[in-house]
Write a structure and sequence with these properties.
Elements (H helix, E strand, L loop, with lengths): L2 E7 L3 H15 L2 E7 L1 H9 L6 E5 H9 L9 E13 L10 H10 L2 E5 L5 H12 L3 H4 L3 E4 L2 H9 L6 E6 H5 L4 E6 L7 E8 L6 H12 L4 H7 L1 E3 L12
Parallel strand pairs: 1-2, 1-3, 5-6, 5-7
Antiparallel strand pairs: 3-9, 4-7, 4-8, 4-9, 4-10
Helix pairs in contact: 1-9
Amino acid sequence: MSSLNLLSGGAAQGLVGSLAPTFKANTGFDIAGEFGAVGVMADKLRKGTPADIVVLTAALLAKLAQEKLIVAASIADIGLVETALAVRAGDPQAVAKDATSLREVLLASDAIFVPDTKASTAGIHVANVLQQLGIADELAARLRIFPNGATAMRELATSKARRPIGCTQSTEIISTKGVTLSGPLPAGCELATMYTAGITTAVAHPQQAQHLIDLLIGDGQYEQRKRAGFISGPNWAATALTSG
């Protein structure tokens, strides 16, 4: 069976998975996807990992296009994804309406599950927010850092900590069983990141790659994008929002 090779940030894993049956019905191709921290995925492409299509942050994809690894004309916005808080299913919601209450929520947690703080969009942002709130040193020993948000959320779901919390892309929280989305980070600490798709210059299946992009951004998939956690995108009402 033929497969389309995909390298993607973890934020798009749920959406891609939901579109895979339609993509196969239309093209006969499976999607051989690899998902992880956006920086790691970009480096895999740079090191020659076979890929037909890449889904990463807009800033990273633009850089890869400059490096002649992505066809610039193929780049298309999928939508914005917020960085958000998560709790185990059944735990009280973590309410953070402003920076002060976010600081209190984080200090009250005995384990904080996050993705890679040096290579992932959300992880880098969490590290910056902890510095901004003046609690980075105090919470350093409580951080539970994993290669990507999906892994961090799976670990949160099974955590035996007394009051654990998670922070990653909302799409990764929504697609993980055993955790609940508590809401985006509050004003002053928020991050909404535009995710985009692009075809690689080494593409083996250009027609199928374009078909997947068309599915990812198509009007017919609006509800799927919304359910997956994307808050804006092509032809959406909130197009005034900008990338974080």
